[in-house]
Amino acid sequence: ILNEYKASHLYEIQSGNISLSDDPDRQTQLSLPDKCWSVYDGTDDGNRALKYLYDRGVDDYLIDKHNIKYVGNISGNPYRNMVIIPSYDMFGNLNYFSGRDYTGRKDFNKKNPRVEKTEIVFNENLINWYEPVTLVEGPFDHIVTPNSIPLLGKVINEEYLVYKILKQKTKNTVNIMLDSDAYGSALKC
User: Fold this and answer.
1) pTM of the model
2) What is the DSSP letter of 102?
3) CB under 8 Å to 37, separation ≥6 — which residues?
4) 59 with 51: CB under 8 angstroms?
5) Are 84 and 70 in contact (CB under 8 A)?
6) How does pLDDT run across 149-189, given as a tens digit for each residue?
7) What burial letters (b/e) apply to 47-76, b meaning 16+ CB within 10 Å?
8) Which candidate among 45, 143, 163, 167 keeps its CA 20 to 30 Å from the CA of 136?
């Protein structure tokens, strides 16, 4: 039944109950940033982005599996010099993405779209709900951890769609693998 409601792309889950949304803004499609390219394009910027990914332990298989892209050194682009990790819902529609600077800037190293994080399941299209699921903090943790969902932070509670779906669908183990600074948050999950 959950899949039927989600297929409408107009669903909401509130207090554990599933209902269709009448909100027309729910129908708005997110898109990747302008000038988003393959890290394999052979340009200097593409090679820098690719090296950044390799240095983080992300290999070609994971780059392809997660459709990782980059935005080059384009003046005025808010995602300038960033690797872009897209997220897709269970139907293959883009529902979020995360940008990470590949140049080493300390002042501005990540940027995400203005999407309510509580309402998405990052890369839901890759989750096997019949196997143990691992909750991790961010996209880079996710792409190297099989069958994982990034929380896009350190907290999850009843407001998160991930929480509601895990409660309804998962009869298996849910592992929580957060960074050491999130120990207190993990205990609250």
Assistant:
1) 0.77
2) S
3) 43, 46, 69, 70, 71, 72
4) no
5) yes
6) 999 887 888 888 888 888 776 667 888 888 766 556 555 55
7) ebbbebbeeeebeeeebeebbbbbbbeeee
8) 45
Calculate ∠ Cα 4-12-164, nearest 5°: 85
| CA-atom Rg of the chain in angstroms | 17
**Can you tell me the distance from the alpha carbon of 147 to that of 15, in angstroms, rounded to the nearest whole number?**
26
pLDDT in tens, 42-87: 999 999 999 999 999 999 999 999 999 999 999 999 999 999 999 9
Tokens of 2: 């959950």
- Residue where the block lists tokens 């999850």: 156
Residue type, 105: R
Give the number of other Cβ atoms within 10 Å of residue 142's Cβ.
25
Check: CB of residue 87 under 8 Å from CB of residue 95. yes
